[in-house]
């Protein structure tokens, strides 16, 4: 039995039927040309043939000192048949049915009596592709690490014969361990330096408060900043990376700035449509790397939770992009002015941006500290395959929270940027409208800049 | 805001992620001959066209005096699109895939932020039929009433043009109100007579303890009598009513006795297979009507929670049937010797046999008071239709509990007896084996009796 790290325990403690604390992803695959009708069934059977399960995929919460959030125990008899499931879409098998299905899967709590992860192979898409919905508890792995982990099942070789299983990946060579361990190390470092999670959070607040001083306003209350229910709506779409890069080139902004401005325009349109646009601009929390392009010091973790003025009060798309760029630039500066311990603490929070929201008292830092988390998770530009099937898209599905009823997470995949939106179903029954607004917002940037 | 009746509140209080407290049913329908590929989509759309929702289907738990289990509030904006869902089976769409799907649906908790019911239209069965999985929280409706309610959406007319919706059924004529209200009335009567749920339970215990005195042994501990996890396995199958009736005729037993003996034989075989058959016979709790065939007094509720010696220690099928018949007969006698208040209390428990298990202290009546609940819910022998689709089967899916890891509920439907078995997935990963044992057990009774 191992003790659960304090930050991870937080995700178990904070979880309730209204607040599932798992990260998900929805991937689309094109099966190989010679795939028969039993391809997926045989794929799953081949995966399940290896019953070796690594510790991350075989540990489950144990009750220790009366609390079920304190310790992990190893499950010696993992029921892979339960963890790897098949399902199908009802007709006509279009994206609407896929999103309904993903929303249902993403709403359900993971079973705490088992290792807290699930894979779902979804067939019945009209275009002949299949989907993989995967789900891991945030106490096991944060969103970035989950993404990396699923990446490691893939290969650039369409004809590879070796089949990788997420639950039994070969150990990575070399000293830099994957995200989760890094986070663990971080927590060790920070907690030994500052002696408690409270101290860690105090440092984080200092960082956020200092950034807020550079912003023109505190975050306004919007319809997104309300308590949430347990049901989810998911919406996903891909945009060509080339379109975003052309706006970047024409304006001198970064890719991330363009993505933020595109999101800001969509949020503005969504709120305008509902007569609910606040006078003051919305503030996003954006996990972001601080490393410069020419920074070769690969050892240090230089990631930060940046606050960004989204300029949602501004109608002109280029002016909005300028405000966003200015805001991210200035808050990166603030970041660099923090003490190393503060930077380290913030980095810990960046790896799990949700952790901050969960801490008692955090909500009182400011009212509210920010309106939305927009997260750009590193992806891969290569063509990738699993069992001969080509990966077409990877949509991250993250965690809405009380006061943060919608989350936007995106990742690069091949030549695309794949957006995954997750909202509280009650607060955003028409979440899919945001997809159209994202397209309109990017088109407006193109019109203005090109 | 209405207060929740004490017995109903119990089902909300007792619910946890390990113990979902909803009753379900899985129905199979044969679509009309002229049904096109869009039949189910149009069926659902037609259902959703009427947005009038009666109180039972629009109330949800409200937080009152700090407790979310005390009061109902009406939801004025029921999101029917959420409550009525479509899904599909992966290939090859056989009964295995259907049971996997039903098991997943039956494992998930209902959302307490909404009225606590769901309907799922399931397509993709290889034989062209479709399934309807329905689910209601036990705090809304008990299993018998849920069954009756779904029955009222059906008609004997295959060409009926009026479409009935479970959430907006016309009021029933005449004074006898449907099950739920009757239960409500019962509780009112009992609680006003005895002033508290505790008193009600005290009366129930008296009844159970008196019955236990007529049994040869107390219930032994078996592998079914363990704490349970949150995941479920469902297994369903139909048997011809004629086969059961022939055994009944040849032996002079009742249909219910034959069903109990059939179940007993299956449980015996399942335990034998695992070298886990106790020396002492298993005891079933069997909700049963006490009304004689010629009893025309339709006002009184004459149902009881009978304890039955299943004779699982006996190899000979006819001898086992004899023990079962003798046991049910003697315990009906005991029942008749109870005071009217005690009978009334027991009747309340019969309408929700699970309630007894949930009460603190109940488990200490005896160790354990019984091994399994086997419930025969009244069904219909007529051919029934919904939107022109013929009902082929109705499998009740009930609630396993701590100490009662498997539940057997059956109902008559057309010319069949439809069995629905629900087990804790961890305790009974191979629940489906019980289906084969049920068949073998009935065949053994036929061989011996005919």
TrEMBL record, chains A, B:
Pfam families: WS_DGAT_C (PF06974), WS_DGAT_cat (PF03007). It is an enzyme of class 2 (transferase). GO terms for biological process: biological process involved in interaction with host; glycerol metabolic process; response to hypoxia; response to nitric oxide; triglyceride biosynthetic process. Pathway: Glycerolipid metabolism; triacylglycerol biosynthesis; Lipid metabolism. Residues 301-445 form the O-acyltransferase WSD1 C-terminal domain. It catalyses: an acyl-CoA + a 1,2-diacyl-sn-glycerol = a triacyl-sn-glycerol + CoA. Residues 165-184 are annotated as: Disordered. InterPro entries: Acyl_transf_WS/DGAT, CAT-like_dom_sf, O-acyltransferase_WSD1-like, O-acyltransferase_WSD1_C, O-acyltransferase_WSD1_N. Its EC number is 2.3.1.20. Keywords: Acyltransferase, Glycerol metabolism, Lipid biosynthesis, Lipid metabolism, Transferase. GO terms for cellular component: plasma membrane. GO terms for molecular function: diacylglycerol O-acyltransferase activity. Residues 5-259 form the O-acyltransferase WSD1-like N-terminal domain. Belongs to the long-chain O-acyltransferase family. This is Diacylglycerol O-acyltransferase. It comes from Nocardia fluminea.
């Amino acid at each position: 039995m191992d003790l659960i790290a304090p930050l991870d325990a937080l995700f178990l403690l904070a979880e309730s039927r209204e607040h599932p604390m798992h990260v998900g992803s929805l991937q689309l695959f094109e099966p190989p040309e010679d795939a028969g009708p039993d391809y997926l069934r045989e794929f799953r059977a081949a995966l399940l043939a290896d019953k070796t399960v690594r510790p991350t995929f075989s540990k489950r919460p144990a009750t220790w000192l009366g609390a079920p959030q304190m310790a992990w125990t190893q499950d010696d008899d993992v029921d892979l048949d339960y963890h790897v499931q098949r399902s199908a879409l009802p007709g006509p098998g279009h994206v609407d049915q896929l999103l309904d299905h993903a929303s249902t899967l993403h709403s359900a709590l993971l079973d705490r009596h088992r290792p807290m992860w699930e894979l779902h192979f979804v067939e019945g898409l009209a275009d002949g592709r299949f989907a993989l919905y995967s789900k891991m508890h945030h106490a096991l792995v944060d969103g970035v690490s989950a993404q990396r982990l699923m990446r490691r099942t893939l290969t650039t070789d369409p004809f590879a014969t070796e089949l990788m299983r997420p639950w039994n990946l070969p150990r990575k060579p070399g000293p830099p361990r994957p995200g989760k361990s890094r986070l663990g190390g971080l927590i060790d470092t920070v907690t030994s330096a500052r002696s408690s999670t409270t101290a860690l959070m105090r440092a984080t607040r200092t960082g956020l408060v200092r950034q807020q001083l550079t912003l023109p306003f505190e975050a306004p209350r919007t319809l997104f900043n309300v308590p949430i229910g347990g049901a989810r709506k998911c919406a996903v779409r891909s945009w060509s990376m080339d379109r975003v890069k052309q706006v970047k080139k024409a304006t001198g902004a970064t890719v991330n700035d363009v993505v933020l401005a595109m999101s800001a325009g969509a949020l503005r349109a969504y709120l305008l449509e509902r007569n609910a646009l606040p006078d003051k601009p919305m503030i996003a929390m954006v996990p972001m790397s601080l490393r410069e392009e020419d920074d070769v010091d690969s050892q240090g973790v230089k990631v930060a939770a940046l606050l960004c003025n989204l300029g949602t009060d501004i109608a002109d798309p280029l002016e909005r992009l300028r405000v966003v760029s200015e805001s991210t630039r200035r808050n990166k500066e603030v970041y660099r002015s923090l003490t190393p311990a503060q930077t380290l603490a913030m980095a810990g929070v960046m790896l799990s941006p949700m952790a901050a929201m969960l801490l008692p008292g955090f909500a009182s830092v400011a009212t509210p500290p920010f309106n939305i988390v927009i997260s750009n998770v590193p992806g891969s530009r290569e063509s990738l395959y699993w069992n001969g099937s080509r990966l077409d898209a990877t949509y991250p599905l993250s965690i809405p929270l009380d006061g943060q009823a919608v989350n936007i997470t995106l990742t690069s995949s091949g030549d695309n940027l794949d957006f995954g939106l997750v909202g509280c179903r009650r607060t955003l029954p028409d979440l899919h409208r945001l997809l159209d607004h994202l397209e309109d917002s990017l088109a407006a940037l193109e019109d203005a800049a090109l």
